Amino acid sequence: MTRNPLTQLGLWMMRGLQDRASACHGLWQGISGRPDRRKGWLAFVLAAGLLSACTTVQVEDESTAPKISFTNTIWRLVHVGGNKVAPPEPDGQAPFIIFLDDGRVGGFAGCNHFKGTYAVVNGEFRFTEMAATRDVCPDDPVEGPYMKAMRQTVGVKQDNDELLLLNKSGQPLAVLKAQVKRLK
């Protein structure tokens, strides 16, 4: 029975180093018929490399996952004004915000893009110098409440992948989730 070279290498590794020549049917014998140690080691290194490529990778659980940064993270809007934000159309874009390290902020409100700055003013978190594009979207149920929430925000609270924009009484005006790209 003929086996492919990968099967032969696997058998060789299971039988041990002493039995390598007979398990691999002369795969690495030299011209003289004697085992060639260089070819044997080369086959061993290749087999070890192939087998290590087949190992499993342990997935990190939530407790060992790295903390998500407030800045330089795309925060996708999931609730605003007490209402859940519907997922965007397949060709659409979800409302989001991103806070940059230098105090700038930018994002998309559902119809219009916005930008500005953020800062702590008199002990309160504030969006400042805000500007937005002026596209007309009369049927957008998210943009008005989202922009109002940003105007009324005096605090933020981050709990790993969730960010809350808070009003003066500490109640959430909007809830955002970190957009984390994961490999499948």
UniProtKB/TrEMBL annotation:
Concerning Gene3D superfamilies, the annotation shows: 2.40.128.270
Q: Which InterPro entries match?
A: DUF306_Meta_HslJ, HslJ-like_sf, Hsp_HslJ-like
Q: Which residues form the DUF306 domain?
A: 70-176
The secretion signal range is none
**Regions that span the bilayer:** none
Q: Which residues form a coiled coil?
A: none
Under Pfam families, the record lists: META
Q: Can you say what this protein is called?
A: META domain-containing protein
